[in-house]
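Fig. S4 source data, part A: sequence.
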Amino acid sequence: MNDKISAEEVIAKIKEIAQPLADEMGLELVDVEFKVGGDFLRVFIDRPGQGVAMEDCSGLSRRISAELDVNDPITHPYRLEVSSPGLDRPLKRAEDFIRYAGKPAKVVISQPLNGQNTFIGRIGEIQNGMVKISLQDQEAVWLPLAQIKKARLEVEFKKT
């Protein structure tokens, strides 16, 4: 492929390859990360309700590698990593916010709301393309899903 391929194009191609493979294994493709010129291609997976086992990661890695041997959009050496998204997993789709309703999250939006771009609070309901975030010591805010640049679950520690 062309050396001028963008990171977004690589990610789209990898998702196109990985999604059906993950589906066949009963896995959810959570995210793909790649930077042009970078040494790592990272694929994040989950198994809803069960979590991800090492066998899931290694199995999907082998299947993706076999596909990339035939049609690889990356022209330089790199390392493929397949793993769980971790406790602070990214939230990308409306379905992610629905699944993790009630959990704490950090959300960054592209357009300031009341002079603020970053919000930390509990995920609430989703309505009309908006997600409700209940802020600590404040009222809730409604954030447009289309304006979310980055969102991650926050790790919550239980007090004993």
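Fig. S4 source data, part B ends here. The first helix runs from residue 7 to 24.
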